[in-house]
Design brief:
There is one protein chain. The protein is of the alpha+beta class. The chain is built from 6 helices and 8 strands. 28% of the residues lie in helices and 37% in strands. Strands 1, 2, 3, 4, 5, 6, 7 and 8 form an 8-stranded antiparallel beta sheet that branches. Helix 1 packs across helix 2.
């Protein structure tokens, strides 16, 4: 089955699969005028959430405060899948979740590791995701572009777009 067929069949499954394969995306806070920032994410498909470990001294956390709306965007390694996720984001005090997610990679960012008083866990409850899937085959793209140039009523058929809602959002 092609990736486009997988996407057409179950875009939500493909989203969680891609989020599991990728290590970072761009996170932005709706109320902030700041640019989106690269962040590592920890997907939780069962809960419909993304988790982030950061420092409470960042502008990002300052803008989150006790809650705000956020967007998180990712692109697959082969640029055949794109997603922009939206949802509520807040600081979490779930120490057990932080322990579960903690790793040597996270520790590298904090002097003193997990005991650093500025370690902060962010919890993003997803409400919606705009997803795009494209063929990774350059020959197929070229063929579709050629067809579109030869017929004025045709556009290249190289991908799909869908918006999905998450039942977990409040």
């Amino acid at each position: 089955m092609s990736r486009l067929d997988e996407f057409r069949e179950d875009p939500a499954h493909m989203l969680w699969q891609e989020l599991g394969d990728l290590r970072a995306g761009m996170l932005g806070i709706s109320s902030a005028q700041d640019a989106m920032q690269p962040m590592s994410h920890f997907p939780d498909a069962a809960a419909g959430k993304l988790w982030f470990i950061t420092s409470d001294e960042t502008d990002l956390v300052r803008h989150v405060g006790t809650g705000d709306q956020a967007q998180f965007c990712v692109t697959s390694q082969d640029q055949s899948f794109f997603a922009c996720l939206t949802g509520a984001i807040r600081q979490s005090t779930d120490s057990a979740k932080l322990d579960e997610l903690w790793s040597p990679a996270a520790a590298a960012w904090f002097e003193g590791g997990r005991d650093n008083p500025h370690v902060c866990l962010l919890e993003m409850t997803l409400s919606e995701a705009a997803l795009w899937a494209a063929t990774g085959n350059p020959l197929a793209v070229g063929y579709e572009m050629l067809k579109a140039n030869m017929a004025s009523d045709t556009t290249p058929d190289v991908g799909e777009h869908v918006v999905i809602a998450f039942p977990h959002a409040a």
